[in-house]
Amino acid sequence: MSLKFFAFLLAILPVTAASIPVKPESVGLSEERLSRIHETMQRHIEARNISGAVTLVARKGRIAHFQAHGLMDIEANQAMTKDTIFRIFSMSKPVAGVAIMMLLEQGKVRLNDPVSKFIPELKGIKVAIPEERPAGTSAAEPPRYYTVPSSREITIQDLLSHVSGLGSGPASAADTRKVLEGLSSSTLAGLTPKYAATPLDFQPGSRWSYSALAGFDTLGRVVEVASGSTFDLFLKENLFGPLGMKTTAFHPGDDNWPRVASAYHRAEGSLQKVQNPNQLQSKTYYSGAGGLVSTAEDYAQFAMMLAGGGQWNGKRLLSPKTVELMSSAFVSDTMQGRQPGRGYGLSVQVVTDPIRAGYRVSTGSFGWDGAYGTHFWVDPKEQIVGIMMIQTDNPDRQLDRDFENAVMQAVVE
Predict the structure, then answer these.
(1) Which of 29, 95, 226, 229 could form a disulfide with 108 if both were Cys (CB 3.0 to 4.6 A apart)?
(2) pLDDT tens-place string over residues 307-357
(3) 215 vs 93: CA distance, rounded Å
């Protein structure tokens, strides 16, 4: 059987066996060139940028590379494995985004719905305006604010695209921290209405500013109200179960903690173990902003569903038009707060101009990252999914770009 004919068969076969790794050449990737992914990870391990990683690359709906690198725990000299569990932090956000897209398709949520339709306490939330500092004020003194009415209510679309102002900057930071005290033992129903007492950092829709927790935790509560189910159960029944994501959850389960990678912080050329990295892993508070744990293979099922236009392993979760909507640039790279070539969609960043962005991916690629270095993207043009799981804070995100380069240079047809 010729290689071209084998590739043709892969394209027309049903996707039920799509998780089985294939020869890279069968999907237009070079196995020899893909080995540079390991070389890239090893360079960063030797530089003490990371302890280890798990990387996965799929093309045309088939996994062509899946490899563990380095250590999941340095002190115990414990090797990274393919089934290592990672705190994915903000890579939880696209999962929450898909939950909202499902409810959108069901007619239970509209993008222009005011959030107060689901959480009445958020109606009439104020906007913070910084006061002018008197001459001679110490730079160490925190800024002061007064509040004004918001020009309009915040909407579901505002939360999905980080233009709501909810928990998005310094004005709300202190109040948001107070709200989040005792988060691990709280619930979405009990906590998210308290955001009504925190001011918005700017008028809705006037700029882009990342809402690390408040925005997407609020969306998790919207899912609960609109669906009549708890957020974790909704995800299990509508997303994780159909996709076979057996490990992905808001808490790894007591028996699975040994599989969770240790978290590290870069400091002066060394890696220091983070002593308490599990604040968002809870059995009662389901943080759509950053609470999920997952494996590279689990998350790949989610990403390949998006790459497949909402369908994976014979199951349709979203329509192709909904995935297209989700991955469209609702926020232009010209809006205040965005970077050149990098727009923002509904829970995912969208690369609108890879040259200006400095990215080695195709125009229209979309995805997101996590605080401790996890990274994924979907390249619709090249039909590529890239997953990189690490557990070290990655402030400059240079490893993301190096991983993307190692993947894209392996495309040979």
Answers:
(1) 226
(2) 999 999 899 999 999 999 999 999 999 999 999 999 999 999 999 999 999
(3) 10
pLDDT, tens digit, for every residue of 28-80?
A: 999 999 999 999 999 999 999 999 999 999 999 999 999 999 999 999 999 99
Three-state SS for 32? helix
Structure-token pair, residue 183: 């988060």
Beta-ladder partners of 312: 315
At 224, the amino acid letter reads E
What is the rounded average pLDDT of the residues 368-397? 96
Amino acid at 181: E
Q: In this structure, are residues 127 and 148 in contact, taking their beta carbons and an 8 Å threshold?
A: yes
Amino acid at 289: A
CA distances from 39 to 26, 165, 240 (A): 23, 41, 32
Q: Is the pLDDT of residue 224 over 60?
A: yes
pTM over 0.85: yes
The backbone torsions φ and ψ at residue 291, rounded to the nearest 5 degrees and listed phi first, read -95, -10
Judged by phi (left if over 0) then psi (alpha if -120 to 50, else beta), residue 313 lies in: left
Using CA atoms, how far apart are residues 332 and 118, in angstroms rounded to an integer? Answer: 28
pLDDT at 136 over 80: no
d(CA 387, CA 64): 12
Structure tokens at 358: 């400095």
Cα 124 from Cα 392, distance rounded (Å): 40
Residue 169 and residue 53: Cα distance in Å, rounded? 32
The first and second tokens of residue 188, run together, are: 């979405």
Residue 181 pLDDT level (bands cut at 50, 70, 90): confident
C-alpha distance from residue 332 to each of 207, 216, 351 (Å): 10, 20, 10
Tokens of 35: 């080995």
